[in-house]
Amino acid sequence: MQDISQLGEYHETGLPSKGDSKQPVYLEYSRQSQTNATGRHNSPLSYDLNVYLSGEIELLVAFKNSQSKPPLPSYGTRLSTGVTSHGRTKIKRAVSSRVVAASSKPVMLTLTTQAILKDAVFNRHLASFLAYARKITASTFQDYVKMIDLQQRGTLHSHILLFERIPTDSFAKLRTLWANKYKFNNNNFNTKYLKNNAKLAGAYLSHAAAYLSRSHDAVRTGRNGKPYVRSAFKGNAYSISTSLKKGTLPVQFDAFALSDSRVQGLAKTLYWVPDGYAAYKQCDSFADAKQHLATFGITA
Questions:
Q1: Are residue 236 and residue 212 in the same domain, yes or no?
Q2: Which pTM does this prediction carry?
């Protein structure tokens, strides 16, 4: 989105105050305008309205015909410093949609190593492990989210969120594979059972709180106060199974055809982020979200 602070005067009403940013507020769209240095109002507002399978309603406000800077080019080997904020949002939507769609018995599987391995070697072991897991217990590993990050000593480890318990015989085979064939040990194969509720996505992300976006030159420190051996690694920081990716895709509405009164009525029921250009509402299900929109005459 264009940096409006450099364009001149900007008129707004209904924005949250600093001390009350978490309260539901709304923008008076009909009174909002952008003025450039010449005094011309040449950037009318536009809206993007999306609904996700998890029941989330998203309303984005932007300026039509506005310009944005192109992304900086990247060259050479792809390096990751952690999951970006965009990636965290995709993970949350994927997990939430799965929890809403079916009952779950979620498990957090943690895979570590004692040896100092190259990134390519760890990723190869992890790929082989997942391929074998899908072979012997396909239903358990049909839906999963995988995240990879650094340990303080510089080697990688992985968290895998599953939505079904691993059968006992398959669990033994998988632990033997990771501990013996890859020459680790049983302590490098750990499971943690999570409660199946609406806060599962938040619980999963809280376990991964250390995976926030970081610049490549950031200095990471561990709980002991000592710095990490390195701050970036090769490869992707996360992946979502194909069956879960549908939860990250929105059902889009033709918001340009909406009248200001409809959008304004909906906006009063949403929670706005502090910058005032994005609003959300988490309904119990996709059907509830559609019903909420229908109240304001908005249909898919």
A1: yes
A2: 0.75
